[in-house]
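Question: Now follow the chain.
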Amino acid sequence: DPVTVGSLWLWHSSGSHNGKAEGTFQVTMLPGDGVGPELMHAVKEVFKAGNVPVTFDEHHLSEVQNTASEEKLDRVVDSMKESKVALIGKIHTPMEYKGDLASYDMRLRRKLDLFANVVHVKSLPGYQTRHNNLDLVIIREQTEGEYSSLEHESVKGVIECLKIITRAKSQRIAKFAFDYATKKGRAKVTAVHKANIMKLGDGLFLQCCKEVAELYPKIKFDTMIIDNCCMQLVQNPYQFDVLVMPNLYGNIVDNLAAGLVGGAGVVPGESYSAEYAVFELVRRGSPRGTVPNLPVRAGILGGLEYHSNMVSDAVKKVIKGGKVRTRDLGGYSTTSDFVKSVIDNLHPHYGA
C-alpha cells in the first residue's frame, strides 16, 4: 500500500491491474494572487488532459484583491472539512498593519491546525545546478514560534514580538519528523535550533527533539545551530537527510534549499494536520514563466497513485528533455508552453 503520513493520503484503488482510482474526488482550490491563478489553471489543464478524476471546489481568498473576509474563510474551512485536501496558490500578505496582525493565510493554518510544513528538495534530472543529485526534506512547525502574531508597542518606539515555543507542539512536530523518516526510509533527522542564545525557547524545542529521538533508535539523530546549518547547506548539502525546526528557521531554510535545485517554481510545499493535507508553492513570490511543478505533487491528491505517476512522469520528461524551459530555469518558454509540452508527454493510454 502507498505510504501514509498521518493518515493523510486518501488512497483509493479499484484493485485493477493499472491501479486507477474509482469515483471522483473533491479538492478545495484557492488560486490566490500573483502567479497563483496561472499555476492553478495549469494544474486544471493537465488534470483535464489526463482524465484525472478530481473536481475542484474553487474559492477566492485575497487580501490585496479585497476578496478576503471571515465569512469566505469559513467557507474555505467548510470545503476542507468535506474534501480534506486543498491546492492553493500564492496568497499575498500585505506588510501594512490594518488592525489585525494575523494574515488570512495564517488564520487558515490555525483553523485547520496545519502544524507540519514539508518541503522535499530534490534535484530534477536533466536540469544542472551547482549541486546535483540532492534529496533532502525540510520539516517545520508552522503554528507557533515567531509567527505567533503576538506583537505590541510596550512604550513609544519599543515593539515586543513574542516567540512562542510549547512542549506539546515541539513534541508533535518532532514525532512527525521521525515518523516521516521511518515511513519514507530515511536514515537521519537533524534538529535545527538556536538554543545557544535562546536557551529557554529553542532549548525546549531541542530537548523535545532529543526525547522523541530516543523512541526511534534506528534513525540517526543530530543537532545543528541554524546559522551553521545555512552555511553547511551551501557548502555540503549532501550531509542532510531530514531536517526539523521551528517556524522562522524553516521558512528561511526551505527557500535557501529551493535555490539549490532550481528555485521556487520546482519545489512545492505540503502542509499537514491530523485530518487535512494542503499543497502549495514553497515561496510566495514565484516569478512569471515558472515551471508549474504543482501538478507533480497535486497528482497525489486524493491518493490517486496511478494518475500521480502519470502526471509526474510527464512533467519530468519535459524538464529532462530540456527543449521547453521557463524563464526561472534559464529558458524562454512560457508556463503555457510548458503545460502544452506536459500534456503532449502524458502516457498515451492515460485515462483510457
Remarks:
- DSSP finds ten helices and twelve strands in the chain.
- Residues 167-183 form the longest helix (17 residues).
- Residues 1-21, 294-302 have pLDDT under 50 and may be disordered.
